[in-house]
Sequence to fold (398 residues):
Amino acid sequence: MGRFAIVDDDRIRRGECTDIYFERSDAVLSGSGLNPEVAMEVTASGIPGGFGILCGMEDVISLLEGIPLDMDAMPEGSLFHPREPVLRIRGKYRNFARYETAILGFLCHSSGIATAAASIKAMAGERKIFSFGSRRQHPAIATMVERSAWIGGVDGVSNTAAPEGIPLAGTMPHAFVMCYPSPGEAFLAFDRLSPPEVPRIMLCDTYCDEKRESLTGARCGAVGVRLDTPRSRRGDMRAILEEVRWELDAAGHQDVKLFLSGGVTREDVSRYRDIVDAFGVGGAIANAPVIDFAMDMVEKEGMKCAKRGKRSGAKQVWEFPDGGHLTLPEERTGPPGAVSLLRPVIRGGTVLSRPVIEEARRRVLARIPAIREDAIRGLRRAGTEGGEKGPKIPDSAQ
Fold:
């Protein structure tokens, strides 16, 4: 093991990061002289919220490149539903069986983050969402976390290990403010010494009342004030936000924006989007539940088969112009006007196409309005069914 408790690229590529039963099964199949030609599909039976955003395909392709197999998959950034295959592999079973663990790990984790980001971005409407959660995950996967969040629709990320081209966001921690005799001196130093392209967003809840520090920040050149108030001290967060907004406006700082961070959830975005200009979201994106994908055999030696609870035979997912989906057996012709989503990616180990991160992001952003409508309906149902505990959806979210 290296300096840190992580698995290096080469071990993953050699199939040495796998569940032990794949190694044991491989040995027995080899001893039996069996290596059937199979088709296996990756599907998710249940997805919180009813939809997922496919992410992690770049890693899957890098893993399987050069292995004698064929792979078809939805484009990265595609929206999918339960029981729809997002990926299909054809080849000799023993050639790729040991990679199932890594394939699912890549897809489950990345897709979970991208799905959460899309859901939160949808609820935010025109407000900005920034990914601030890489510190909630192992640093070895920071690139994956930020890449997935960007594909999911966030407007920027905080970690410097993000893929090149993704905008970075963030100005100061509380410790920075505490290094100076007073918040005002910290703000003035930041304004004077930071490069001009860094936005003057001041963190205004270090020592005292958010209103007081926000007014100090505004007088020291802030274009925005960030409130990161701990939940143990928040009380009525809406009242705090409204008070800060009122006092900034009353002092002639109507152009100073409000930025909320610190344990922000999708429900918080729904509650405060009418008054907050941007949100820094941490764990709600980075710690999002994984998409519970499974990889199942659907054909063996050209014959359809499936274990209990799964559907036999290779399938194709067809998408209609309105975004609706229909799953049919692979050999069936698709409906008029619909396009097939599972497309050739690898043939005989040769990669035919790789994901382009900005294309994947555009696919997600194109679906955000529909996701938002579904999310608002779901939250309204939850509010009705949950009584006082249900989240309140402001009229401005309509």
About this structure: The longest strand covers residues 37-44. The domain at 170-274 is CATH 3.20.20.70 (TIM Barrel). The mean pLDDT is 92. The two ends are 53 Å apart (CA to CA).
